[in-house]
Amino acid sequence: MIFPIVKFGDPVLETPAADITTFDEELKKLADDMFESMYAARGVGLAAPQIGISKRIAVVDVTFKENPDAKLVLINPVIIKKEGRQRSSEGCLSIPEFREDVTRAKIVTIRAQDLTGKTFEHTGEELLARAFLHETDHLNGKLYISHISGIKRDLIKRKIKKLVKAGEW
Ligand code: NI
Question: What is the Å distance from ligand 1's center to 116 Cα?
Fold first, then answer.
């Protein structure tokens, strides 16, 4: 099932999500639906709050269907190591049409549980490192615009307000 993507302004995006404690068929279905919703929206990462579900699960595929092994389900993820720096353009499905340069760590190790509840660690570089940080932020109620200057953030918020007024958001 393809869920509509929740957009900036909805409080669910700025609320820390709840831990997942039950690893059942329903959770597997949610992960499948999240991949389907992410691909439909042309994204490479999606966190459950972005479909209105305040639970600590995110899906990532930085290859966008190229490599099935690149599909990652991150449940209750925690960033455990960050190294180096990278700066490049970042966007978010919940803030469509906007992009800004964001400085992030270049190499990131995440610890998370899989769909069976098993804990694993995964180290990602470049785009994958960025995705780990961006999606974990989502589960903590944080958006990438919190990492840009206040001036740029206010400008984006003002533009969004106008779009809301015009019924285009
Ligand atoms: Ni996002």
Answer: 25
